[in-house]
């Protein structure tokens, strides 16, 4: 019995009605006669790990095999739905390319020659290497980068080893860092990974390169679809016409790197035409008096020259969105690692939203809520001998020593790290040697720009440890590779997610590990034991951690979690009915009245509560004293993007497709059926100038660098002239991931390694390439 593609697609794309009645399709006989209700032998609870959104799900098992994944209909977030990537988690579990046993390198770095070893040998080897590095260079010479649900486990090991602040969550430098810093300086709050956007209750939405239908997360798309159903006006701004653009009422093809000019001009119109939300601005913001003269130069006519968007359109959009305030939103981009002025761009977006008064308002930004879930009972890892040693040595954070970031950014970077700078510290061995690196569930050769420099850095390490599921490219450079079980084969402690509807869920295995793999808690337990740190890791695997946490929960909460797979904080009030049948003011009031009785409140400002902002002033800092004190622009200014140095060089931009997650799913059999290679989007006029035709095989060239695997040119006016687009995550060169090997071109190889001075985050799209026929 095998689930075939058509069934998979139905499940992935259809609504909850279909999902609630799973059917199995037997292709060997006539389908209509054989269609029968599906009865699982076993159903287990889980949450999806195919992307960080972690939709809550149920796993259906027959004959000891996972047959189907389905969104948990008790989830207040994904409401019984999964996307195609989520459904294809089955094919990650059953990928025969998976890492099947611990490995120790026997060839040169990059050759991918290993010997298979036992778990005990691998633990002993890692422990020996960590001890050698600590003895020779001190614990500060150990670094960590990590991603995903297992982060607390690997970070605990890192702390026990005396690892200092040299760790990084790549999502900061490669994705949301500039945006979070910009919002922190303005609202005293970062937006985080799961943004508090109240799309379903919004009446006017501006998306700036935020391709919500391709950078797809189930609940976000669900609420965006509701907004479209409610006839919210959608404006989409991007150099590329995307699927999201196709859903918009108005698409504006903007020159790349000029979004700040567009937003500054919107602010200009709001200010000069007095369209701002005065009640909100007077009560909750400081610095509007300084913004007024500052913004005068950023007229729509000036912005037209920068952006290519007509001044009249900018004026009209500013007027339209203001007329819906506060129930409207200018959506901050998800990935803001673009042109090096990204934090000032985020500041401009934050200020424009503040002028609309949409903070903690329906249709604007809601207040995220969270359920408190007890942690497992474990000793204070700070007491480990290596942590004590690190404390005595008091080594500087290498990343902070290499950067000149403003004060508040330094605090944020102290918590989330800067992966791009961390690898540069390793490559240069400055300000001091970093000699051991752990990559957990993240591939630095695909999430950093100028990725050949990362290979150089890897060669500077005495010890490189990788924990992953598949033998991706970075594993070819590792000294030891620990194979982690997939999320369908393991337990995980309750995970509480912060969002509009607070909820927590947990994970239990649907099947035993297929290969000789272990969960991340078991892996860190083994290494710690061999380091003499066993007392700090009292649980031998994730099951122990889960049950310790469950045992500390109030009984009713625990019972509900085990019964439903998810807990929330009570029934969710209906969204405002904006279908047009009711006056929107009445609809919003009805919803707010319902929230008055709810145990959580996403709209405190709308409900008249006193709100303090975690800024210097206690209000929203339109003008930032903190930035002024550190010598940075206290109000956002416009920096034009860089230009190509030669003729026929094109700016390289990249983005997502809906059926792949970053660089993690390119070997997935089902997802490959829908997108199995990237191509190069090029404008017809650019293509003509270099004699490229649609479908020609081409390679990208930058200096001495040439992409090794030819891809097709897609000649289309959906991309603006002077710019080319490729989908992220391709150009795969690990021969052990056989389904995607030698497919596509890698953006990571060609995009720039510049940084934004305010956040330290990457500025990937400052890179230009030329194109040659293959
Ligand atoms: S959005 Fe899709 S891939 Fe991400 S967690 Fe949800 S179902 Fe999984």
TrEMBL record:
Q: Where is the 4Fe-4S Mo/W bis-MGD-type domain?
A: 41-97
In terms of SUPFAM superfamilies, this protein maps to:
ADC-like, Formate dehydrogenase/DMSO reductase, domains 1-3
KW Nucleus (keyword) present: no
Lineage: superkingdom: Bacteria
Instruction: Write out the transmembrane intervals.
Output: none
Q: Which InterPro entries match?
A: Asp_de-COase-like_dom_sf, MoPterin_dinucl-bd_dom, Mopterin_OxRdtase, Mopterin_OxRdtase_4Fe-4S_dom, Prok_Mopterin_Oxidored, TAT_signal
Per UniProt, which keywords does this protein have? 4Fe-4S, Iron, Iron-sulfur, Metal-binding, Molybdenum, Oxidoreductase, Signal
Citing just one GO molecular function, the answer is: molybdopterin cofactor binding
Q: Which family does it belong to?
A: Belongs to the prokaryotic molybdopterin-containing oxidoreductase family.
The molecule here is called Molybdopterin oxidoreductase
Supply the source organism for this entry.
Answer: Desulfurella acetivorans
The record lists the lineage as: Bacteria, Pseudomonadati, Campylobacterota, Desulfurellia, Desulfurellales
């Amino acid at each position: 019995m095998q689930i075939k593609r058509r069934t998979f697609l139905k499940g992935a794309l259809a609504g909850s009605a279909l999902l609630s009645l799973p059917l199995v399709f037997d292709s060997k006989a006539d389908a209509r006669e054989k269609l029968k209700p599906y009865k699982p032998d076993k159903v287990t609870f889980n949450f999806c790990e195919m992307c960080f959104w972690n939709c809550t799900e149920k796993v259906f098992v027959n004959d000891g095999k996972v047959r189907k994944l389905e969104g948990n209909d008790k989830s207040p977030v994904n409401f019984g739905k999964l996307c195609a990537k989520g459904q294809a988690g089955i094919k990650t579990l059953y990928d025969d390319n998976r890492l099947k046993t611990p490995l120790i390198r026997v060839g040169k770095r990059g050759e991918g020659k290993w010997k298979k070893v036992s778990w005990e040998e691998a633990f002993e080897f890692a422990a020996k290497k960590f001890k050698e590095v600590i003895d020779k260079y001190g614990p500060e010479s150990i670094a960590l980068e990590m991603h995903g649900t297992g982060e607390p486990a690997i970070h605990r090991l890192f702390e026990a080893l005396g690892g200092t602040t040299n760790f990084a969550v790549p999502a900061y430098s490669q994705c949301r860092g500039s945006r979070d810093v910009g919002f922190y300086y303005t609202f005293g709050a970062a937006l985080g990974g799961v943004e508090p956007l109240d799309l379903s209750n919004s009446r006017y939405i501006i998306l700036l390169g935020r391709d919500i239908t391709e950078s797809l997360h189930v609940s976000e798309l669900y609420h965006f679809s509701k907004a479209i159903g409610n006839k919210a006006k959608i404006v989409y701004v991007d150099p590329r016409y995307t699927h999201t653009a196709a859903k918009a009422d108005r698409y504006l093809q903007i020159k790349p790197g000029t979004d700040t000019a567009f937003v500054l001009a919107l602010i200009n119109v709001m200010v000069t035409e007095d369209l701002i939300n005065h009640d909100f601005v007077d009560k909750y913001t400081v610095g509007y008096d300084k913004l007024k003269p500052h913004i005068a130069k950023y007229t729509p006519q000036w912005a037209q020259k920068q952006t290519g968007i007509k001044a009249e359109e900018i004026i009209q959009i500013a007027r339209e969105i203001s007329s819906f305030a506060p129930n409207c939103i200018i959506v901050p981009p998800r990935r803001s690692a673009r042109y090096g002025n990204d934090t000032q761009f985020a500041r401009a977006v934050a200020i424009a939203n503040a002028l609309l008064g949409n903070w903690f308002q329906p249709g604007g930004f809601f207040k995220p809520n969270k359920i408190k879930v007890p942690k497992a009972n474990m000793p204070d890892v700070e007491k480990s001998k290596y942590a004590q040693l690190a404390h005595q040595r008091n080594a500087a954070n290498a990343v902070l020593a290499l950067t000149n970031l403003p004060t508040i950014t330094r605090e944020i970077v102290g918590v989330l790290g800067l992966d791009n700078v961390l690898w540069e510290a390793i490559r240069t061995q400055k300000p001091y040697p970093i000699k051991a690196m752990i990559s957990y569930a993240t591939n630095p050769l695909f999430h950093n720009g100028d990725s050949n420099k990362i290979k150089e850095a890897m060669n500077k390490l005495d010890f490189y440890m990788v924990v992953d599921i598949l033998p991706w490219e970075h594993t070819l450079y590792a000294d030891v590779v620990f194979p982690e079980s997939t999320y369908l084969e393991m337990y995980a402690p309750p995970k509480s997610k912060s969002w509009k509807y607070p909820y927590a869920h947990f994970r239990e295995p649907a099947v035993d590990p297929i290969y000789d793999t272990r969960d991340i808690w078991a892996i860190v337990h083994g290494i710690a034991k061999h380091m003499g740190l066993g007392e700090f890791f009292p649980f031998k695997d994730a099951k122990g951690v889960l049950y310790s946490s469950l045992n500390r929960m109030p009984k009713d909460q625990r019972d509900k979690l085990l019964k439903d797979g998810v807990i929330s904080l009570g029934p969710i009030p209906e969204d405002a009915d904006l279908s047009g049948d009711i006056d929107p003011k009445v609809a919003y009031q009805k919803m707010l009245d319902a929230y008055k009785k709810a145990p959580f409140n996403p709209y405190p400002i709308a409900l008249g509560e006193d709100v303090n902002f975690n800024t210097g002033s206690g209000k929203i800092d339109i003008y930032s004293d903190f930035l002024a004190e550190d010598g940075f622009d206290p109000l956002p200014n416009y920096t034009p993007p860089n230009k190509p140095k030669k003729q026929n060089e094109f700016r390289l931009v990249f983005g997502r497709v809906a059926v792949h997650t970053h660089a993690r799913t390119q070997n997935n059999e089902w997802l490959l059926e829908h997108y199995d290679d990237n191509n190069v989007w090029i404008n017809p006029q650019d293509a003509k100038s270099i004699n490229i035709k649609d479908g020609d095989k081409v390679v990208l060239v930058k200096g001495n660098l040439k992409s090794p695997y030819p891809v097709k040119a897609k000649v289309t006016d959906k991309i603006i002239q002077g710019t080319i687009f490729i989908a992220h995550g391709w150009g795969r060169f690990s021969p052990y991931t056989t389904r995607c090997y030698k497919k596509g071109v890698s953006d990571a190889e060609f995009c720039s390694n510049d940084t934004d001075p305010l956040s330290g985050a990457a500025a990937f799209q400052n890179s230009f390439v030329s194109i040659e026929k293959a």
